[in-house]
Amino acid sequence: MDAIAENFFNLAIMAKVWPYLLTGLGTTFLLSLLVVPLGFAGGLIVAVLYSLRKRWLNVLVIAYVDFFRAFPPLVLLLFIYFGLPFLGIQIPAILAVALGFMLNTSSYYGEIFRAGIDSIPKAQWEAARSTGLSWLQTMSYVIVPQATRNVLPDLLSNTLEVVKLTTLASVVAIPELLNAARNAQALTYNPTPIVLAALMYLALLWPLVRLLSRLEHKGFAVR
Amino acid sequence: MELDRLVFTFFNAEVAREYWPDIAKGIAVTVQLGLAVIVSGLALGLFLALVRSFHMRAINALVVIFADVLRALPPLMVIIILFFAFPYAGLSMSAFTATWLALALVLAAFAEEIFWAGIASIHHGQWEAARSTGMSAWQTLVHVILPQALRLTIPPLTSRTIAITKNTALGSVVALSEILGSAHSASSLAGNPTPLTLGALAYLVIFIPFVAFGRWIETRYAWKR
Prior knowledge:
heterodimer; B: mainly alpha
């Protein structure tokens, strides 16, 4: 029992690494602020392109979405980060993460937005267009706001996944929370920092998981 | 940039021939790992959802905590805890076991929630009607509730299972020689990223059929409005 306390919940080590892990948490937060809006915007573009209902464009959009849903995000990230330098293109790790995440998450967000846009009855389009709104105005003021509301639980659930996915950035040495915890473990020869980081993720993400559970059960029930 | 250079760099036939055996071994590991994760994760998830449907308060609380914790923690974090922290408690495991266990638990957590949502969505009158015909609680669950509930769960379960099975690539972080791990080390040895291209292609060949299947399932089992 003592050995477990000593190795996993060592308070002296927790106190020592706390500021360092907090910096890591800050980086995780900033990283999320970078990749979530990028994925969101990319997904919206994917869904809007799909809603144009041009046959060849739809084939391209579906190919794009399925391609990146089949591609593990870590493979994509390493391919970008370690592959591009062979072509003489050096990119900083953060840019590789931003690019990899955007390609990956925009396909997931895109599918969600597409379902949302599909859920809006055609009459809404016709009514909006007949009041003199342009196509773009109809899309941005009438369709997208309602579509977003309809798929809010899915958007939230995907955002949770994206935030969890930021741990992959540790593999290309971006000092986010997991990376900080592993460095701290190496320095202290004790896994307490990893446990502490896990507790930090739990404290932050558990409320979101609870909220999602509620929304999802409601969703099943009303259908 | 000249096309020649692009081909030489990413599609180098000589490098591909030399390192293909490594990638093939990686594919075998990824397929075994993926199947193990899918089978054990879904089985555990279904089991937990069934247990939960008997409404025993203390056990339900434990199931909910299990599902919440494993949905809140990033999968890479879980793998690293199992592989790097558990040995300090005398529980050492291989990279394969750590990756399998972590992903199976994560999949079980998500599957439990989806199965449970499906079971909970079946109207209570169905239980009562079935029980009043003389079926036991277990028979009701197996013959009446589950067949209806499972139908609802297929689309979300398919996409979740694909997303989690793709995470087998995370095993490379704990030095498991699955596709990504062997491709990465081969490309370092070769000084050429062609093995990474091969690895990426292998993932696409394995997963695109599943993604296409998932898309088909979604339309097939879509709710008739």
